[in-house]
TrEMBL record:
Domain 2Fe-2S ferredoxin-type: 1-78
Name the UniProt record assigns to this protein: Hydrogenase
SMART domains per record: Fe_hyd_SSU, NADH-G_4Fe-4S_3
Organism expressing this protein natively: Mediterraneibacter faecis
Keywords assigned: 4Fe-4S, Iron, Iron-sulfur, Metal-binding, Repeat
Length: 578
């Protein structure tokens, strides 16, 4: 142990502890802007400086470790003056129009500046203006960038895509797309992890809320919304609701109050996805098509963008099943539209997702009869949903639990856990067991595929289904995905079925979820989904009676011609980058 003194308080900490970590143990948070533990420890912002007795220069606390007898001052006059000047300089190159920024009230720079009581800027303001394609799902505002380098490090170290890089030198140093290319010229997966780890509003999703308001105002349109499983685990965080208060029923109530005509839970179409993808896997497995390479899940659009740009030769190994979002959209504009007597072109489909890549996925086309358009018209992230709730002046505490609308309102616990890494695999194995043996397994028989922690990138398991042994793997985070694919390609491992999620921890950690700077809440949110599954009245996708009715009345059976036409896709129809 190392004995030190921080702000006149003595403390003993393990060797290798940074000054910042030691101060935190005493309940003294040192302000920071660029620091992300084990990811971005470059002290670029200089906001975390402290004074050490016996040293003339201030030192950064995020990447300097304590030494025996060290005496540290975290808020001495010298520290305070330097910190104020540093933040004032940063603000002089940051567009401070906070009232029109999506991160207002949830901005680390804003919080640090307020804490330092900065009420004026002595330096001349100078903003960088870099053009950006505002139609792209991911938006970068160069006027707000503080050059903290977090986006570079997250994309390189965690996702392994190297989309961002430092350009220019000296006072002109800035961040831009690697190679000074346009964002739509590179292989961005749209995972959105750069957004959720940006300390300010320099990175955000394209805001599509006005499109939804316009559709609601259009008397000719019937607005139909679906809400993804992962959204229920996080939406309340931005509105001051506890996990117990923030139910899916209250989201449905909020959407109805906003003006949406019909509301549904995407867990329904997650069950539908399992029926299609599970049967497809059993078919390909029994035919021996997976002896060399596994079948990969296809419900994560960030992953689809990744494999198409990085490993295009593996695209045939993807399941042909559309994602739950797209399946629901297709069913809404056909089966549901017919049931309420409305033409498909008058149905306006909205999906509320934890994901930025879903905004890209909605470009998928739908052709049915005389209709030519899209499964989904608009995708909103969880953050956009909460902004719409605020814009409608809805008090979150006033919301009541409301059921989904009839015809597609039933869901299973298997559908709910789609939002957590391992959930798709577990749901698929539950129903695959039934389809092979004719009996349900214990609902928790396959929980071995669940991720034990946020840090766990890959989970492997061998499970018995009938007489067959299925070698399964679950992976989340594109950096981990690349390592796994390389191991498969080099023959180091072999699997039959692999679930892939682009975002670490799965959809619950998606790029469209509420932002908590410095916190990773994917595992906590995932635990909430597993709790809902444990207490669900139905825990198997094949027991969802509304899904069974959909097959009996419209689709006939899984993998039927109509199912293929509406619920499956050809992944080779478009190329990356896009």
């Amino acid at each position: 142990m190392v004995n030190i003194t921080i702000d006149n308080q003595k403390i003993s900490v393990p060797s290798g502890t940074t000054i910042m970590e030691a101060a935190a143990k005493l309940g003294t948070p040192i302000p920071k802007l660029c620091y992300l533990k084990d990811i971005n420890e470059i002290a670029a912002c200089r906001v975390c400086v402290v004074e050490i007795e016996g040293k003339d220069r201030l030192v950064t606390s995020c990447n300097n470790v304590v030494t025996e007898g060290m005496v540290i001052y975290t808020n001495s006059p010298k520290v305070r003056i330097a910190r104020r000047q540093t933040v004032q300089l940063i603000l002089s190159q940051h567009d401070c129009k906070c009232a029109t920024c999506v991160r207002s009230g949830n901005c680390t720079l804003q919080q640090v500046a307020n804490d330092l009581n900065l009420i004026d800027l002595p330096f001349k303001e100078r903003f960088e203006d870099t053009p950006w394609d505002k139609t792209f799902p991911l938006i970068r505002d160069s006027r707000k960038c503080i050059k903290c380098m977090r986006c570079i490090q997250i994309c390189d170290k965690i996702q392994g895509l190297n989309i961002w890089d430092v350009t220019s030198t000296g006072s002109r140093t800035t961040i831009n797309v690697n190679g000074n290319k346009k964002i739509n010229e590179v292989s961005c997966s749209l995972c959105g992890q750069c957004i959720t780890h940006c300390p300010v509003g320099a990175l955000r999703e394209r805001d599509d809320t006005e499109d939804v308001w316009s559709a609601i105002a259009d008397k000719k349109k019937v607005v139909v919304a679906q809400v993804a499983p992962a959204v229920r685990a996080a939406w309340g965080e931005a509105l001051g609701l506890s996990r117990e208060e923030a139910t899916i029923g209250k989201i449905m109530d909020a959407l109805k109050k906003i003006g949406v005509d019909y509301v549904f839970d995407t867990s329904f179409s997650a069950d539908l996805t399992i029926m299609e993808e599970g049967n497809e896997f059993l078919q390909r497995f029994s035919k021996g098509e997976l002896k060399l390479r596994p079948m990969f899940t296809s419900c994560c659009p960030g992953w689809i963008r990744f494999i198409k740009s990085q490993y295009p030769h593996l695209v045939p190994q993807l399941s042909t099943a559309k994602s739950p979002q797209q399946m629901f959209g297709a069913v809404m504009k056909t089966y549901f539209a017919q049931s309420i007597g409305v033409a498909p072109e008058d149905i306006y489909t909205v999906s509320v997702m934890p994901c930025v890549a879903k905004k890209g996925e909605r470009n998928m086309e739908l052709f049915y009869g005389e209709y030519a358009g899209h499964d989904i018209d608009t995708v909103l992230t969880t953050r956009e949903l909460t902004r719409m709730i605020r814009a409608a002046h809805i008090d979150p505490k006033s919301l009541k639990d409301r059921e989904c609308d009839p015809l597609m309102k039933e869901w299973s616990g298997a559908g709910v856990i789609f939002g957590a890494t391992g959930g798709v695999m577990e749901a698929a194995l539950r129903s695959a067991h039934y389809l092979v043996t004719g009996r349900n397994p214990d609902p928790d028989a396959f929980k071995i595929v669940r991720s034990p922690s946020f840090e766990t990138g890959v989970v492997e398991a061998e499970v018995q289904i009938g007489d067959a042994t299925i070698r399964a793997a679950v992976v989340s985070g594109l950096g981990n995905v690349r390592k796994l694919l390389e191991a498969i390609e080099h023959g180091e491992v072999h699997y039959d079925f692999v679930e892939v999620m682009a975002c670490p921890g799965g959809c619950v950690g998606g790029g469209g979820q509420p932002i908590h700077d410095g916190e990773e809440l994917a595992h906590t949110r995932g635990a909430n989904l597993y709790f809902l599954d444990k207490n669900a009245k139905i825990r198997f996708s094949h027991e969802n009676q509304d899904v069974m009715k959909l097959y009996n009345d419209f689709l006939e059976k899984p993998l039927s011609h109509k199912s293929h036409m509406l619920l499956h896709t050809d992944h080779t129809k478009w190329d990356m980058p896009r």
